[in-house]
Amino acid sequence: MKENMAQEAKRPLLSEGGKRAPLGEVQGILLPSTTVNNWDQIQKFKAKNDDLLICTYPKSGTTWIQEIVDMIEQNGDVEKCQRSVIHHRHPFLEWARLPQPSGVEQANAMPSPRVLKTHLPTQLLPPSFWESTCKIIYVARNAKDCMVSYYHFQRMSQTLPAPGTWEEYFENFMNGKVSCGPWYDHVKGWWKAKDKHQILFLFYEDIKENPKREIQKVIKFMGKNLDEMIIDKIVQETSFEKMKENPMTNRSTVPTTVMDQSISPFMRKGIVGDWKNHFTVAQNEIFDKDYKKKMEGTSLPFRMEI
Known about the structure:
about 300 residues; alpha/beta; four-stranded parallel beta sheet; two-stranded antiparallel ribbon; 6 strands; about 10% strand
């Protein structure tokens, strides 16, 4: 099966050095061309039993949960969390952009216990994760806010194709024609996987509504025991406002050739319900009808507002 997956990785024609390269494809899922070109290395990655994998669909609170996990790992020590930028603390498995080391290479060079990050759907995750007893934290965000956030991210990210107009992007997102494939299949796949594996499934809206309660779930899942004062500190230090000003989390150190934050900030609003500022009444009706059809038969309890 692994051999087939490697063969199914359709490599785009543009070179890795090309700006705004088109997306490639693996098993019908669109992914950045650099990821597709490095697919064999990604699939052969060896997970360890003491790894902690953070998984999300893009723009679902990934950096937020990363910082929460790191703060827990460091027992609320802010200085230790400032040791390096977040994307160096937690290697991003699909990252592959020369001349930097790939995410897999970064992970392989890291001592255990490792915290790793991925946006891959369940069917594309390196098989070693399913064979190990590692823990996985998955954060899901409602589809409407996710679409809006992804649209603005794609406007400024130079590693993904330009998103086109909002109207065009609206259609592409609903049809899964974005990097990491359909949001619907991604969240449903991980929701199902949680019944068979050590997966803590969290919702962005829940963390926003009651960060302390959700952070306590993460602490318990990680097998840690922190006192009340440290937990309160973690809540405070991982607020959107704090993280937006923190150069270790706000991606301000990333070159404009990768992220042009003059177009749109990496940490933009971090709220629930921003979709109301983007969706027209007609788009909302179209989306709701399509959503109902695609999410039929799942018990996933998403909230579009809180």
